[in-house]
Structures are given as C-alpha cells and as structure tokens.
Design goal:
Layout lengths: L8 H7 L3 H11 L2 E4 L10 E5 L6 H8 L4 E6 L6 H8 L3 E4 L6 H12 L3 E4 L17 H9 L2 E8 L1 H4 L13 E5 L15 H19 L2
Helix pairs in contact: 2-3, 6-8
Length: 215
C-alpha cells in the first residue's frame, strides 16, 4: 500500500527500515503509554487528528502507529535549510498559516489517495500547557474533500517532556496517547452553515472527550 505514496527516495529510505525497533525504543525512553490502539484501522488511508502542545508531538504519533504517517507542518519550520531538508525527507508537508493553502491541500489529498495516512493538528499551532485552542476549518475541508475516516487522538504530558523553549526533550517522562474510535463525515449529512467549521469543531470535541477519559 505505502509504495504508492508520493514521496522522495530519501523519505522512503528513512520511514521504512528499522522502524519497529526504533519506535519501541522511543516509546520506552520517553515513557509513552497508549490507550485505544485497537481503534487503529487495519487498512488506510485515514486522517489522524490530534491536539498539539509540543514539538515532540509528531514523533510521539509516529512511534505509536505501525505504518508510516505523513505530517502537515507549518511553513516557517522549512525556512531553516537543515530543518527544511530533514522535514521534506521525513514526509512532512509545509502549510501556510492564516489562510487556505491550496498547494498543501492538494499534496495532502494526493497522499491520502495514494493509500497513506496523514496526521494533522486541527489547532494549527501549539496550545499552552494543558490547554486547547479553537480548531482551524482547514481540517474540516481536508476531511470532507478526501472522504476518509478520522482518528481522534489525545496527547497528554508532551508539554512536560518538551515544554516551550526547550531544545531537547526530557527522557523518562509520562506521555499518554489516547486513540479514539474512527469518525466518518459526509457533507450531504451536515446541515451546518459552514460544514468545514462544523467538522473541525466536532473533531476537537472528541479529542477533548478523550482527554477527560484519562483524568
């Protein structure tokens, strides 16, 4: 399935080999505990929608899912030559904040059409410690245009392991990853004035419910 994904040779080289061992080691080092792993669909593609509080969130997500996951990342991170090169070849899609990025949407849809799963953070940026932000309607647009299922995910404790201003994460933390049941949205079944905003808000509602389930 994943050999159809639109990616570079170097990205293909990095995201395939030695992943199972590396992922287990990463989870052990940073104290990652997973709840709801049985909710992960056996086949893709699907969209992973997670809250966002730390730069360590993407690798935490990647360490939990058995298959490679593509990510949407803010364009500013790609402006650094080294970081941009690494992100590009680790299956990250740059997106401009503050408006509709048609190119990022097109790339995301191509990845999903290729059979690959994609992770997006509906809030668009990192929230404060223990907080949630209002989701951006772009995630709703991606969900409705792609027609794929959405897997809500709550991340807890990543803002303690790697808080704002930290250059490196702290090992032996207590990170909780709670994976909810897949959600499915059809535009014809939504009566809201803005269906994209409705879907984004509904996804965030499920993420918050997952957070409440571990308190």
């Amino acid at each position: 399935m994943y050999n159809k994904c639109p990616t570079s040779f170097l990205a293909w080289y990095f995201i395939r080999p030695f992943c199972p061992l590396f992922k287990r080691l990463f989870r052990l080092i940073f104290g990652i505990k997973v709840k709801g792993a049985d909710n992960i669909p056996e086949e893709g593609p699907f969209i992973i929608a997670s809250n966002h509080r730390s730069y360590i969130d993407p690798p935490v997500i990647a360490s939990v899912f058995p298959e490679p996951v593509f990510f949407v990342a803010k364009e500013e991170l790609f402006r650094n030559p080294l970081a941009g090169f690494i992100l590009k070849h680790l299956a990250a899609i740059p997106i401009r904040r503050g408006g509709l990025d048609k190119e990022a949407l097109k790339m995301s849809l191509n990845i999903l059409k290729g059979g690959c799963s994609l992770c997006i953070f509906p809030e668009g940026t990192r929230a404060g410690k223990g907080a949630f932000l209002k989701p951006k309607p772009g995630v709703g647009m991606l969900v409705l245009k792609s027609g794929v299922k959405v897997l809500p995910v709550y991340l807890g404790g990543t803002d303690d392991v790697m808080p704002r201003g930290s250059l490196l994460p702290k090992p032996f933390g207590d990170i909780k990853v709670v994976i909810g049941k897949p959600l499915e949205y059809k535009k014809d079944n939504i009566s809201a004035i803005d269906p994209y905003e409705y879907v984004a808000e509904d996804i965030m509602k499920h993420i918050k419910e997952l957070a409440e389930s571990v308190r």
